[in-house]
Backbone:
């Protein structure tokens, strides 16, 4: 009996509020849920497909580089590029360079007066990342294939690709907003 009394005392002061949600709550909730799904579907397009490949390529490049360091103690070229480290790093550099080049071409193709400011800002940020990469090339020469510098160089490539992907996403959003406004003006 003592245990039952303790339980009653425990729950006596607790207020169980069973009020109903406001009118239209379910519809608003479902609308928000559906709008979240549509934006997730939009983002999982072609650019969403590159993300796993980029991560895999970076991981593979790092593993191949480490394996190359163990089995290959050949001469180190004076360029300081990733390509000068090993054949695997050359492939990695070519992969990222090609991907960045394609993204830049796509941005130039879809650029419009409404998105010009975003593109110019992105190009300034790309120049900063390029300057940072040049410093990393010098650091790579000084350090003699330091894994941290190589990882920073790969990270620099990934930052550039992320920047370009974000710009393309923003351009798509601006165009969709413009199209929606145009459709609303027609109606």
Residues:
């Amino acid at each position: 009996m003592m245990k039952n009394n303790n339980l009653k005392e425990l729950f006596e002061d607790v207020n169980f509020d069973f009020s109903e949600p406001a009118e239209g709550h379910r519809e608003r909730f479902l609308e928000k849920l559906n709008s979240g799904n549509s934006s997730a579907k939009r983002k999982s397009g072609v650019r969403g497909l590159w993300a796993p490949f980029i991560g895999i390529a970076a991981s593979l490049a790092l593993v191949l580089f480490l394996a190359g360091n163990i089995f290959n103690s050949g001469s180190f070229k004076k360029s300081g590029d990733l390509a000068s480290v090993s054949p695997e790093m050359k492939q990695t550099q070519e992969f990222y360079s090609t991907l960045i080049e394609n993204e830049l071409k796509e941005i130039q193709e879809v650029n419009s007066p409404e998105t010009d400011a975003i593109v110019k800002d992105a190009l300034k940020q790309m120049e900063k990342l390029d300057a940072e990469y040049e410093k990393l090339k010098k650091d790579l020469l000084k350090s003699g294939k330091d894994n941290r510098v190589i990882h920073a160089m790969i990270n620099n490539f990934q930052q550039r690709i992320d920047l370009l992907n974000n710009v393309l996403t923003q351009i798509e959003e601006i165009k969709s907003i413009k199209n929606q406004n145009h459709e609303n003006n027609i109606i």
Summary: Helices lie at 2-12, 25-43, 46-71, 87-110, 116-143, 147-186. DSSP finds six helices and no strands in the chain. Residues 74 and 86 are 9 Å apart (CA to CA).
